[in-house]
Amino acid sequence: MSLRMTVNISQRPMLIMTPKLKQAIEILQMNRIELSQHITQQMEQNPVLEETYEENVDLNTTDETETLEEQIPESNLDVETGLPDEDIRDLIHGKDEPELDITSDDFGDSDWERYFDDTFPVTNNEWEAPPEDDMRDNVVVVEESLDEHLLWQLRMSVKTEKEYEIGETIIGNIDEDGYLNASIEEIGQMTETDVTEVERLLKLIQTFDPSGVGARNLKECLQIQLQQLDLQNTIAYEIVEKDLLEYLETNKLPQLAKQLDVDLDIIQAAAKAISSLEPKPGRQFSSERPDYVLPDVNIEKVDGEYRVFINDYGPKLRINPYYASLLRSKRFENDREYILNNIQSAKWLIESIERRRSTILRVTENIFDIQKDFLDKGSGYLKPLTLKDIADKVGIHETTVSRVTKNRYVQTPRGVFSLKSFFNSAIPTTSGGTASSASVKEMLKEIVAQEDHKKPLSDDEIVAKLAEKGIEIARRTVNKYRKELNIPSSSKRKKW
Asked: Could you tell me if 48 and 320 are in contact, meaning their C-beta atoms sit under 8 angstroms apart?
């Protein structure tokens, strides 16, 4: 039997990931700061784009975008994108809404007047300071590193170049947590110095700020801090020196009091002193800075009703009307294609930003139509909610809702929250209804807060307490929620 190889040609329609489509997807997922940076970059690359500070603009109305779907060439639909068809359409247009043309360069048939604003001058010689809310020109603050902080103190503390060389080598081997990760012998070899001199310089550096820096292990780090607090002749220092920290970690304070032959209240005071120490002295200089949240959406109560506002106050984009006049001039006939390409690119950017804004607004409004009780009464009244619930209400795909809510925050009268936090799984109740996982977590927190701290509740006892409130939940789920809430086990919650 022989095999014959043949070539078959078939046609099948597929969407492509064009650069413009990719841009629209990326814009939808950007938070406010990322979008601001992207706009700045686009304005640097595209001379047609410019900013305008319009007054009396209703930021919660969305103009309908122009439909040019008929002009998309069939030949463009021939490369796989890896994304579902519904997702692609929803990301840019929303379900049952016409697609925008991303390939047409037919300038004459486009309604460009909406993107040009002749009421604003093309040039303005008067400089105007941007609103405070415009984040685009923020000054970058360069923060001091741990190495720089230590070297500055070293320069103020040594007298000779050799001492500075040794100290600099020691500091160069201190990690971001503030610990020395090289031995005295190794540093001695690096600097061709006797180990006693290296040890002397290390002791000097260990007196620097932050307290505990330059330690070789946790024990030495805590000892340094206790010494600087003048607590070296205390039970706290004895606990650290004798490696008895495990008793504190497991909350075995009575056993520790018995071993050291002291009263329990002395052990409790020592445990409080040790817990106030910093196990990672370099933490405050860490390059991993906390993220500062700038909400994309605000919710305010106006005339007794909650209203959703997109947090996009500041300059708006428009196409500079000067370039429209160039298209009508024969002098610039050779530049027509270049100008048209930039105008088309600018038009697509403006429409993508507007589509992003409209989608975020509709998704947020529908989330809080369902979660209104949270705004009135708090997190204990959150309702079960899934991505599909919102997708069905808005008329878009679930993946679109996921992308809209990912890493996006909302300012509410009760504080700033991630949009993702308003989606909760349903927990069955004894009455046959459901409660949200968030409200169950709030109940769990209340139960723990009201327990007898000398005899804290076990997970099984918490299950029983929740059952009294009509919540059917397994022990493993209580254990999971407790860990998510950073609530220790009953043995570690016990207070003597």
From this structure: yes
Contact 212, 281 (CB under 8 A): yes
Report whether pLDDT(377) > 80: yes
CATH number of 426-493: 1.10.10.60
Q: Which two structure tokens, joined as six digits, stand for 72?
A: 């998309």
Q: What angle do CA 365, 368, 372 make, to 5 degrees?
A: 140
Pick 146-285's CATH classification: 1.10.10.1330, 2.60.260.20, 1.20.120.350, 3.30.460.80.
Answer: 1.10.10.1330
Task: Tell whether pTM > 0.85.
Answer: no
Task: Return the SS3 of 233.
Answer: coil
Residues pairing with 410 in the sheet: 297, 417
Host H or E run for residue 364 = helix 336-370
Give the sign of the dihedral formed by CA 212, CA 214, CA 218, CA 224: negative
CB atoms within 10 A of CB 366: 20
State residue 363's pLDDT score. Answer: 94
Burial category of 230 from C-beta neighbours within 10 Å (exposed 0-12, middle 13-18, buried 19 and up):
exposed
Going from N- to C-terminal start, the domains of the chain cover: 11-125+291-424, 146-285, 426-493
Amino acid at 451: E
Confidence of residue 242 (pLDDT cuts 50, 70, 90): very high
- How many angstroms separate the CA atoms of 104 and 279, rounded? 62
pLDDT digits (tens, 9 = 90+) for 271-293: 999 999 999 999 888 655 555 67
At 284 the pLDDT is 84
What pairs with residue 426 in β-bridges? Answer: 436
- Taking the C-alpha atoms of residue 15 and residue 196, their distance in angstroms, rounded to an integer, is 71
Higher pLDDT, 5 or 394: 394
Closest-CA residue to 467 (of 431, 426, 430): 430
pLDDT tens across 14-51, in order? 555 566 667 777 888 887 778 888 888 888 899 888 88
